[in-house]
Amino acid sequence: MLFELNNLRKSYGPFQALKGLTLKLDSQATGLLGPNGAGKSTLLKSLLGLLPFEGSAQVLGMSLPEQALEVRRSVGYMPENDCYLPYMTAIDYVSFNGQLCGLPAKHAFRRAHEVLFYVGLEEARYRQLGGFSTGMKQRAKLAQALVHGPKLLFLDEPTNGLDPAGRDEMLELIEDVKTRDIAIVLSTHLLPDVERICDSVMMLNEGSLVHCGPLDALQTGEEELIEVQTHLKDQVFKEHLEAANFEVVSEADRLKVRVPSNKSLDDLLRLARDKDIEIRHFMPERLTLETAFLRLLDEANASPAPEA
Ligand code: ADP
Q1: CB 3.0-4.6 Å disulfide test: which of 45, 97, 121, 305 passes with 51?
Q2: Ligand 1, residues 8, 9, 10, 15: which to mutate, most atoms within 8 A of Cβ?
Q3: What's the CATH architecture for 222-284?
Q4: How far is Cα 209 from Cα 5, in angstroms, rounded to an integer?
């Protein structure tokens, strides 16, 4: 099991940043989503054992805070903020982080070469980080997160500040990391990144859990929307559909039809056949992650926050 949280709460003074998270999650790649201030970074730092919290949490079967050291040896963390001294060379930075994660100095130095090569910084490994471009800094941060061979990687906004090409390269690297049997938690507000990398989603809003589960489930609406196009008879079919209690929500280009809960797609096809209407295009619409995300946030904001 990747995570098992039970009523996890975190306060900064009187402010409650995490309001009692309870979940079980096992997934190869998880998107951690939520608007700014939702508590994503606080959750990642709590799950690394870097912040004290109330309630209980297990990461990869290890309990926090008791096994915080073991957790940090098994988990790599790419923080959102730059976390290095600008005059450090890439090789020193990465091997120093390897030592902080428990590797002996010689081993950390060898691994630092390997991971800097892996992220494409082999030529720049003896250069000072202060002179790196944003893309290079992000790669160096990824390298330090991988240096100790973690089983799980926390990535906090890894594509922040990158241009489209740099973003694509970073996502390619993350996809490659995924193939190496390393589980990933990707914290981001960029929903397309989550759609590309992740198979599950944890969604936070104002410190509360809004959704936790497979990405697919989030993208399936409770009521189906179907795109339909007929052979020259869209307007006629629209009238038949409405008479049969289907809701036509849009008629630009193609008809977009909401199937009510007491009807099925078969009913829609049967109606077309009975009215002698030839269907040319018939496509159930998947919700985009963005639509699903906004809908869940609306629902969360409309209902009162749970008591901690
Ligand atoms: P996210 O990563 O989703 O943007 P954070 O976990 O950084 O959210 O922050 C969650 C909330 O906790 C925010 O309202 C933030 O202002 C507050 N917060 C974060 N760190 C601290 C801190 N060290 N002291 C006080 N408040 C904090």
Answers
A1: 45
A2: 15
A3: 2-Layer Sandwich (3.30)
A4: 11
**Ligand 1: which residues within 6 Å by Cβ?**
12, 15, 17, 34, 36-42
pLDDT in the model for residue 142: 96
Tokens of 129: 């980080």
Which stretch of 20-29, 73-82, 219-228 has the lowest confidence by average pLDDT?
219-228
- In this predicted structure, what is the pLDDT of residue 227? 87
Work out the pLDDT band at 306, boundaries 50, 70, 90.
Answer: low
Mean pLDDT to the nearest integer, 33-53: 93
Q: Does domain 3-219 have CATH number 3.40.50.300?
A: yes
Say which amino acid occupies 250: S
- Asked whether the beta carbons of 200 and 31 are under 8 A apart, the reply is yes
The structure tokens listed for 144 are: 């330090």
**How many other C-beta atoms lie within 10 A of the C-beta of residue 42?**
19
Q: 245 CA distance to ligand 1 centroid (A)?
A: 48
- Strands 29-33 and 183-187, bridge-based pairing: parallel
Residue 180 CB contacts under 8 Å (≥ 6 apart), including other chains = none
User: What residue spans define the domains of the chain?
Assistant: 3-219, 222-284
Q: Write down the pLDDT at residue 118.
A: 97
> Is-contact 227 256, C-beta < 8 A?
yes
pLDDT bin (cut points 50, 70, 90) of residue 293 is confident
Is pTM beyond 0.85? Reply is no
